[in-house]
Design a protein that fits this description.
Blueprint: H1 3-19, H2 21-38, E1 43-48, H3 53-58, H4 62-68, E2 72-77, H5 89-103, H6 119-131, H7 137-150, H8 153-160, H9 167-183, E3 191-194, E4 197-200, H10 201-214, E5 243-248, H11 254-269, E6 272-276, H12 291-307, H13 321-335, H14 339-351, H15 360-369, H16 374-377, H17 386-399, E7 407-412, E8 419-422, H18 427-438
Parallel strand pairs: 1-2, 5-6
Antiparallel strand pairs: 1-3, 3-4, 5-7, 7-8
Length: about 450
């Protein structure tokens, strides 16, 4: 068997292991049995990074989390993100700041920053939180975060008169925090860890709440989430006007697969012109994804799929030749008006049905099922003119400070006023922006 085949088989096996619901349930049962046997409390770790915009949002949830659940919260101060896991750091930093500026009002959380804090203020913030005791960490960290993102050096100086650590102590604290975070399989800040599972920020906090509730750890009977988004967009929207929604999918992205059902719903429920802009998978764009990040992405996408009733089942990765063959047919299929349906079907085959989408018979049947003429469409099979189209799509995506998939762009019908969004987590924000433009 060729090395390439062995590599593909191993990749598929690993992906299916990381996304497996049966393994997920089995792991949960084992760790809970172990916790009860050892009579351990419900210990939740929280990774806080002072100059991470998302940590500013997440720190506001801690007191409510502790008040609602019988847990022992262990704050862990962390430093720089894992270098291997951080792609396009300049775009990443810019996008994170912009994203938090956009979403904070929907959580009723004030985020005062228009730029990242000065380096000297970050040092003071880390000095304070390196010296504060665990019991007071959340309250002090919340004060520090507001002062830091407001550029309030006087406030930080005042707090540092009580809590102060030397540069050596700061370095040791951050190194220890990074080591704990990395050991739990994570790579950024603003995340919770509980018994073999990770929960990133306010986006994933409901999963942690749900799990603790199922274990009987909730103190109060009400089932309200700690933070709920305050949304205004209606389920359906009628308007004589339309907006353009540009969709940047990849054929090897579990998050893209999870997004397809809701993008179809937006197309059905909102007055939009949907434009497909597929891009090459990150692995085919020469980006390395470390194992711990791949594990988190797949396990997280799997639970997101279950949440939206669009579950991943058997995975067959299309990386390499299968993806190239499938992409080669896209321009003709998109021109025939079936671009979304084609990409949706390819993702379903790869992430639900375990089908090799590079198989000629599969592609022929799919094209026919779409109501298209295989004789005409197959003329483009294995040609290369699709490459320029996908390269142009990547450039457009990057111009909006987005590099991962799925990404999206909203414009007015004449193409003006672009609004870029990265990630299936922000599909709700797409609806809010569409509703705002068409109100």
């Amino acid at each position: 068997m060729a090395r390439r085949t062995l590599g593909a088989n191993l990749r598929n096996k690993i992906m299916n292991t990381f996304s497996s619901y049966e393994i997920f349930k089995d792991t949960r049962a084992k760790v809970e049995a172990s916790r009860q046997k050892d009579q351990r409390p419900h210990e939740v770790l929280y990774f806080h990074k002072v100059d991470d915009p998302y940590s500013h949002l997440t720190i506001h949830s801690i007191n409510k989390l502790q008040a609602s659940f019988d847990i022992e919260l262990k704050p862990v101060l962390v430093g720089e993100e894992s270098f291997e896991a951080l792609h396009e750091p300049t775009l990443y930093n810019y996008y994170c700041l912009q994203d938090v500026q956009r979403i904070a009002p929907f959580y009723d959380i004030e985020f005062p920053a228009k730029s990242y804090p000065a380096r000297e203020l970050v040092v003071i913030a880390n000095s304070i939180l390196s010296a504060v005791d665990e019991q007071n960490f959340v309250d002090i960290a919340t004060q520090v975060s507001f002062a830091l993102w407001s550029g309030d050096s006087k406030k930080l100086d005042a707090i540092s008169s009580t809590y102060f650590a030397t540069s050596g102590q700061i370095k040791e604290k951050l190194n220890n925090g990074n080591e704990i975070r990395n050991g739990k399989g994570y790579y950024f800040g603003s995340a919770f860890y509980y018994e073999k599972e990770l929960y990133w920020g306010l986006d994933r906090l409901p999963y942690l709440e749900e799990r603790l509730t199922e274990l009987g750890a909730r103190k109060k009977s009400e089932k309200n989430e700690i933070f709920t988004l305050k949304l205004k967009a209606p389920k359906t929207l009628l308007s004589e006007k339309k907006v353009n929604l540009y969709y940047y999918p990849s054929l090897n992205s579990p998050y893209t697969f999870v997004s397809t059902k809701r993008i179809r719903e937006i197309r059905d429920d909102y007055p939009i012109n949907l434009h497909m802009k597929p891009v090459l998978p990150m692995l085919m764009r020469m980006m390395n994804i470390p194992t711990n990040k791949a594990k988190y992405i797949l396990s997280d996408a799997a639970r997101e799929g279950r949440k939206y009733a669009h579950e991943m089942k058997t995975i067959h990765s299309p990386i390499g030749k299968p993806a190239r063959k499938s992409y080669s047919l896209f321009p003709a299929i998109d021109e025939a008006g079936k671009g979304f349906e084609y990409i949706e079907a390819l993702l379903k085959a790869s992430f639900q049905d375990g089908i090799n989408i590079g198989d000629d018979n599969f592609l022929e049947e799919l094209v026919i099922d779409l109501g298209l003429d295989w004789t005409m469409i197959s003329k483009d099979l294995n040609t290369k003119h699709w490459k320029k189209i996908l390269n142009d799509n990547v450039k457009d995506m990057y111009s909006g400070n987005c590099w991962g998939v799925p990404s999206f762009k909203i414009t007015n019908e004449d193409g003006t006023d672009p609004f870029y969004v990265w990630g299936q987590d922000r599909i709700w924000l797409l609806k809010e922006e569409i509703a705002r433009r068409l109100s």
